[in-house]
Write a structure and sequence with these properties.
It is a single chain. The chain is an alpha+beta fold. The chain starts with a helix and ends with a helix. The protein contains two helices and eleven strands. The protein is about 30% helix and about 30% strand. The strands form two sheets. Strands 2-1-11-10-7-8 form a six-stranded antiparallel sheet. Strands 4-3-5-6-9 form a five-stranded mixed sheet, with no helix packed on it.
């Protein structure tokens, strides 16, 4: 075998090892970035406080996905005739709360702005579903409010 062929074989082997190393490194980096992106979409502690009757002050803790309506399969059941059976969705995506109307009859609004498309909501915003008014608040639900609700 000539020295040129040996040198060429060594160069090809080294190139293959280098490309395998780069592919492995990029795969691990991609997995880390993907898992980091998923981890940041965990909803911060938040809750909704009912601002209207009949259960003024009632508290609803929030998760990443919250469905509102009269139907029992919703995350937050609102037994009020102006609320549709599947009225709205409040979800935490991309580091923000998004509220969207699910084709309700009486509409959904944020700070008196009627929703046509999904809208970003922030802490302190007032959400209206039909005639039900709620406020989005940060942190854990107050303990007194949870205790009051359990007594009812």
């Amino acid at each position: 075998m000539s020295p040129e062929l040996v040198l060429l074989a060594l160069r090809l082997a080294l190139a293959l090892v280098l490309y395998a190393f780069l592919a492995t490194t990029l795969t691990f980096l991609w997995r880390d970035l993907k898992s980091a992106a998923l981890a940041t979409d965990v909803a911060p502690q938040a809750y909704l406080e009912l601002l209207s009757q009949p259960a003024l002050g009632q508290i609803f803790p929030l998760g990443n996905l919250n469905l509102f309506g009269r139907s029992g399969d919703n995350t937050i059941v609102l037994d009020e005739e102006t609320v549709s059976s599947h009225h709205a969705r409040l979800s935490y995506r991309g580091g923000q709360w998004l509220l969207e109307d699910l084709g309700s009859r009486n509409g959904t609004a944020v700070n008196e702005l009627t929703l046509a498309d999904p809208m970003v909501v922030t802490f302190g915003d007032e959400i209206r579903l039909g005639n039900v008014h709620l406020a989005l608040k940060a942190g854990q639900p107050p303990i007194e409010a949870s205790a009051d609700r359990e007594e009812r």
